[in-house]
Amino acid sequence: MKVDGKSWRTIWGADENRGGVEIIDQTALPHAFRTVTLETVADAARAIKTMQVRGAPLIGVTAAYGLALAMREDPSDANLHQGSALLLATRPTAVNLRWAVERMNAHLAPLSSAERAGAAWQQAAVLWAEDIAINQAIGQAGLGLLRSLWEAKGCRPLDILTHCNAGWLATVDWGTALAPVYMAHDAGLPLHVWVDETRPRNQGASLTAWELGRHGVPHTVIVDNAGGHLMQHGRVDLCLVGSDRTTRRGDVCNKIGTYLKALAAHDNGVPFYVALPGSTIDWTLSDGIAEIPIEQRGAEEISHMTGRTGEGTLATITLTPPTSAVANYAFDVTPARLVTGLITERGLCPASGLSTLFPEHVSPQAHQGGGADKEQKP
Ligand code: MRU
Prior knowledge:
By secondary structure, the chain is an alpha/beta fold. It folds into three domains: 2-131, translation initiation factor eif-2b, domain 1 (Four Helix Bundle (Hemerythrin (Met), subunit A)); 154-297 and 323-374, Rossmann fold; 298-322, no CATH class. The chain is built from 13 helices and 18 strands. The strands form five sheets. A seven-stranded mixed β-sheet has the order 8-7-6-9-12-17-18. Strands 13-10-11-16 form a four-stranded mixed β-sheet, covered by helices on one side. The two termini are 33 Å apart.
């Protein structure tokens, strides 16, 4: 996507043999646009943990490049294991992290030490390019949905509500939930996005609003609790969000507060769609509420807030009484029954229909028995 007329990706590797991995530092947005160089696997792990890079698909690609940096430092088995463990410990919920580390390991483990550094760099570039192509396909699949909703609305501007940031900043490019929005906007379909601020880290207010603004997409930032009110008054035609982990039966784990939006959408007859790449599906899990690990983050993200003052400097203020306990659950699970449909790189399906789009993950026994819960582990 473009920033001030120049094309950017959120991450890119410099050269196979030297130079680091460049990222856009998302902790500086929307106040400053800056890039940072990752030189080591420890740098990559730190960037994921401190959320300089975030969003499930981008976390996965950063981990892949992290292992490429590790293999350049020391291509031994021990270092492959150590680098993988370091990266896997950074954030627990987005399954793309495990997916990327497993794909890198499967590719690198059979190779000799001499071959690993080059192969790791090339394989990270494969995951990088795949992410762009997959998100583009999600955008094309979702564009058809947006067009039909727009026509059903008598060709009046479509109002879409989104939560957190599932735009290009959460991926290498395009985004998941926002890919159809960008494609619809570029195709001349009039639309407007309600952007949930997404407390406590404000990915909506800081990142989604920033990237929609840079692309010229009309949008309005709202507090997280406003969505239900807007839906009651017919101001939302569609909720469109991303996913950090989706179970094989279609339960969706996304940024905290997504579940409440799905409940409000259900109560008001508003379609609730989730856009996700196949790498976000955890085929080992069925019941998202019981089985998906939910990240708990630091109390200071809730008790404090940082922003730009009228004088242009950054300032951090305290919001809560110093003696109050604070709990910071970062994700929640929306059960499949509240999800109208999923938008994937292979097309649209009902939340219960992932096994139809991804049949390679279904065991022959499940086909015979027809049970969605009988799918095999990957
Ligand atoms: O904590 P974050 O900012 O990494 O959370 C990101 C989200 O919840 C996104 O909605 C999700 O990763 C889907 S991104 C395409």
